[in-house]
Design brief:
Layout: E1 4-6, E2 10-16, H1 18-22, E3 35-36, E4 39-40, H2 41-44, H3 47-52, H4 54-68, H5 75-87, E5 91-95, H6 101-105, E6 110-112, E7 115-122, E8 130-131, E9 151-155, H7 164-175, E10 180-186, H8 195-204, E11 208-213, E12 225-228, H9 231-238, E13 239-241
Parallel strand pairs: 1-13, 2-5, 2-10, 5-6, 10-11, 11-12
Antiparallel strand pairs: 3-4, 7-8, 7-9
Helix pairs in contact: 5-9
């Protein structure tokens, strides 16, 4: 297996997807037919679905919280957190996962692109999103303690835009001129956005690009290095610091 060597003149951008969390036993929420309890997932993961039946949406997310809460970070999560400790502001993690396992592993310099399963926000007031690990009883729609508005999971749903401030943060890290860039996609297909955009941006700026995934990706040739394998087995041995 190739080894990624990182020195004091290098910064590292890591993008993680569902493959990283699968090794921690995060349960899938869709059946083989793509439905959740015979509901299209869009019905419980969209602004329209929340408007039509907020208690159903909360039952779905309470079920997901119950499934994810006992799961623990695996060696892949822990390796990424260790890289951050060594690199400081020369490190940024961008995750598509909402399960909170990176934070549980100790990651702090992190952008959670799609939100966090254990965070809630108000639909009415500007209250800051807050940690919320409650699993609400069926039929419940929790209300904001500050304004009385309906609360919702702090998740980017179908049809919603990603947080532009977070995208700016990632873009600024990609474009920094003080260090050489290494971009690594882990547990996600390199062929879909945002991985595809990040790899192209990194290459355009002269960066080195890595893909770590259990399965070959359609555009693995866009990366300088492809390591096939489970992230929990690959990542702890992949990086050396000089």
């Amino acid at each position: 297996m190739n080894t990624l060597r990182i020195d004091e003149g290098t910064r590292l951008l890591v993008l993680t997807g569902a493959g990283v969390s699968a090794e921690s036993g995060i349960p899938t929420f869709r059946g083989s037919n793509g439905l959740w309890e015979n509901h299209p997932v869009e019905r419980v993961a969209s602004p329209e679905g929340f408007r039509d039946d907020p208690s159903l949406v909360w039952r779905f997310y309470s079920q997901r919280r119950a499934g994810a809460a006992p799961c623990e970070p695996n060696p892949g999560h822990l390796a990424i957190a260790e890289w951050e400790k060594k690199l400081g502001d020369r490190f940024l993690l961008v995750t598509q996962n909402v399960d909170g396992l990176h934070r549980k592993a100790g990651s702090q310099r992190m952008v959670e692109l799609h939100g966090n399963l254990f965070t809630t926000r108000c639909t009415r007031c500007e209250r800051t999103p807050f940690e919320d690990r409650l699993e609400y009883p069926e039929g419940t729609v929790p209300l904001c303690g500050e304004c009385g508005g309906a609360l919702r999971p702090h998740i980017v749903w179908f049809g919603e835009m990603l947080n532009p401030r977070e995208l700016i943060e990632v873009g600024e890290f990609l474009q920094r001129l003080d260090t050489r860039l290494v971009f690594m996609a882990v547990g996600t297909s390199g062929a879909v956005w945002p991985a595809a955009g990040f790899v192209d941006g990194a290459r355009k700026g002269g960066g080195q690009t890595w893909l770590v995934n259990a399965d070959p990706a359609d555009n693995a040739d866009r990366f300088h290095h492809f390591v096939q394998g489970r992230s929990g087995e690959v990542l702890p041995k992949l990086v050396t610091f000089e």
